[in-house]
Amino acid sequence: MNNETCGKCPANCQPLPPFVLPSVFFIFHPANCQLPTANSLPLRIPHFHYLYPPMRLEKNLPELFEFLSTPRKIALVAHTRPDGDAIGSCLALKFFLEKRGHTAEVIAPDDFPDFLNWMKGSDKVFIRQKNPKTCFAILANSDLIGFLDFNALKRIESLGEDIAKIRGKKWLMVDHHRDPDDFTDFTFWSDEASSTCELVYDLIRMMDGDADIDSDMAAIIYAGMAMDTGVFQYSNTTARVHEIAANLMHKGIHVEEIHNNVYNQYGENRLRFIGYMLKDKMQILPEYRTAFMTISMKEAEEYKLSSGDKEGIVNLPLAMKDVDIAVLFTEDKDRIKISFRSKGDINVDRLAREYFNGGGHKNASGGSTRVSLEETVQILHTALAAFLS
Ligand code: 5GP
Ligand code: MN
Questions:
Q1: Residue 237 sits in the same domain as residue 292
Q2: Is the pLDDT of residue 23 over 90?
Q3: Structure pTM?
């Protein structure tokens, strides 16, 4: 890349020769470039778009746009234990595709937290755990299956096995997690993006769809970005995230309402449970600057926790100045689910990937084990000793 014409730009602009810093690869475009990329927001800031060579992947997007030039049946799939970015990105893309004359359904392997129920269309998400036959029929009937907010079929477990059985479909991945598998016909991936909602926003703009983003879609995209950036505070909060947020606000969203819908939905049980976790359950490993907590099924039952009630608890220990890694172990019927969070350069994606059959991002990742809670905690000790040595 790239002394050629950029191909997609209607003005056929000639990008200037790439400018390479040790880890950053800039492609400057001249002022007449009309390519709808990262910096082509209404608020035009310096006119270049930047690529981190191994960190951004666009595979067959012109072919995808061509494929979408006739009405298609599309299934959009979120990952297991879907979060706001997964459900939000699927719903926003669904509404956009419907506006372009396609039919689109959203499928998730299992249920999502209650605090996403305000999102338009959340009541029409098909949950494979509840409705396996309907989900299979939707997938079998579709022309295109989109995988949003994950990048390996194993992340959707038995739903992935269903999909692997169905032949002759086109597959699309839109994702921002590290180390993607190359398994789809069309891919729009970047681990520089704050969220899959940000990538969906970009994809919509690449299809000249800015005007199609209505206030419901804008609220959903904004919420997905807010949730994945810890409400615009983690290191993935780029200037571009704020520019997109501003653009979405121009579409008439109500940020306080969104914040209340997502974050101020605690029942008394949840607040009491957080108190119990911090007072009785949090353990600190000063030698590793790590704090961890465990939630057993019995405790979850005692405090009547829903899946959403456990969200965000993992972050709490990072408020301590002497803690750089926070870990939450959650006991489930058939596994222990582990969440990792870290500060700065500590790469918990690697920790999750190497020791807990998982992955994610540098500062937020997850994994699972099939052994007991106690054994999983033991693995953490061993893993930290090796990981931090
Ligand atoms: P959470 O701790 O909120 O469940 O997940 C944090 C991040 O890690 C999210 O981006 C999520 O998609 C990713 N993640 C969580 N669990 C897993 C897992 O089992 N495997 C992989 N590859 N990623 C995970
Ligand atoms: Mn995400």
A1: no
A2: no
A3: 0.86
